[in-house]
Write a structure and sequence with these properties.
Layout lengths: L1 E6 L2 E3 L5 E9 L1 E12 L6 E7 L3 E4 L7 E6 L4 E6 L8 E11 L4 E5 L3 E5 L2
Parallel strand pairs: 2-11
Antiparallel strand pairs: 1-3, 3-8, 4-5, 4-9, 5-6, 7-8, 9-10, 9-11
């Protein structure tokens, strides 16, 4: 079993910054890919950023140049650095990881979601 715990969200003014963290624990052998998603009120969930071992990073057009996804392999933790935040970034943010567990099986896991609110 693998658990994901998100942290780092909250309320920030436009132009401010936040860093989200997603810490994975449990029977992890390796993490092959990780992504950040968000869902605003009344809207569908959308991909924000992704990081794969094979292809590196990718970003949604609306956050390119402002957000950065990264990993700390020693801690099994993925981050989303968010700079120059805008009100339209307000959403619940979810991390997603593709994990090979210690038994050798490949599975997908979701974090619990964390609120990011950008408002003056």
């Amino acid at each position: 079993q693998v658990q994901l715990v998100e942290s780092g969200g909250g309320l920030v003014q436009p132009g401010g910054s936040l860093r989200l963290s997603c810490a994975a624990s449990g029977s992890i052998f390796s993490i092959n890919a990780v992504g950040w998603y968000r869902q605003a009120p009344g809207k569908q969930r959308e991909v924000v950023a992704g990081l794969t071992n094979a292809a590196g990073t990718n970003y949604a057009d609306g956050v390119k140049g402002r957000f950065a996804i990264s990993r700390d392999n020693a801690k099994n933790t993925v981050y989303l650095q968010m700079d120059d935040l805008r009100p339209e970034d307000t959403a619940v943010y979810y991390c997603n990881v593709l994990v090979v567990n210690t038994a050798g099986s490949l599975s997908n896991y979701w974090g619990q979601g964390i609120q990011v609110t950008v408002s003056s």
